[in-house]
Amino acid sequence: MKILKIMLITIGIYAGLVVIFESLLGYFQPESQTTLMIITEDGEGRANQRVLQKLSSQGSIYVAANHWPRAWYHQVLEKPDVKAIIDGETADYAASKVTAAEHNTLATKFAHSIWFRVLTGFPPREFVKLTPK
């Protein structure tokens, strides 16, 4: 019984740390030379902005849902016409889910460290391709 209690407390602390890390990351949305801003619309037509890591491979631009909070990803699936601000330039893009082969290539090329995966609570990773319109 004591071991079960210790395990539950440990899991609770870990879950709390993941929530804190993800919340702070979402709140501050750090930007750098390798990020872009994607602008999506929710079901009511409101624009939402999210800073994402820009992934370039074979001349194409991709972004990944790397965290548990991923409203932007679901909005992209519902309304694939998005805007993105890349290097200060705003443009229209068609967003699409990648194929299984592209997913495997991108997951290997842009693999996360085990420490990042631990801090984020091991979320499933999905990739989206941004094609200029």
Write structural notes for this entry.
With 133 residues, this protein is of the alpha+beta class. The chain has one domain: Roll (Pnp Oxidase, Chain A), CATH 2.30.110. The chain has 4 helices and 7 strands, in the order αββββαββααβ. It has helices at residues 2-28, 71-78, 100-109, 114-120, and strands at residues 35-41, 47-53, 55-57, 60-65, 81-86, 89-97, 126-132. The longest helix has 27 residues, at 2-28. The radius of gyration is 17 Å and the shape is globular.
- Biggest sheet descriptor: 7 strands, antiparallel
- What CATH calls the topology is Pnp Oxidase, Chain A
Indicate the mean pLDDT. 92
How many structural domains does the protein architecture include? 1
What oligomeric state best describes the polypeptide chains here? single chain
- State the CATH superfamily name: Electron Transport, Fmn-binding Protein, Chain A
The geometry reads as globular
The first-to-last residue Cα distance is 60 Å
Tally of DSSP helical segments: 4
Question: What's the count of strands?
Answer: 7
Order of helix and strand elements from N to C terminus: HEEEEHEEHHE
Give the spatial strand order of the biggest sheet: 2-1-5-6-7-4-3
The appropriate CATH architecture is: Roll
Proportion in β-strands: 25-35%
Instruction: Tell me the helix content.
Output: 25-40%
Which residues form runs of ≥5 with pLDDT under 50?
none
Structural class by sheet pairing and helices: alpha+beta
Give the C-level CATH assignment.
Mainly Beta
Rg (CA only) = 17 Å
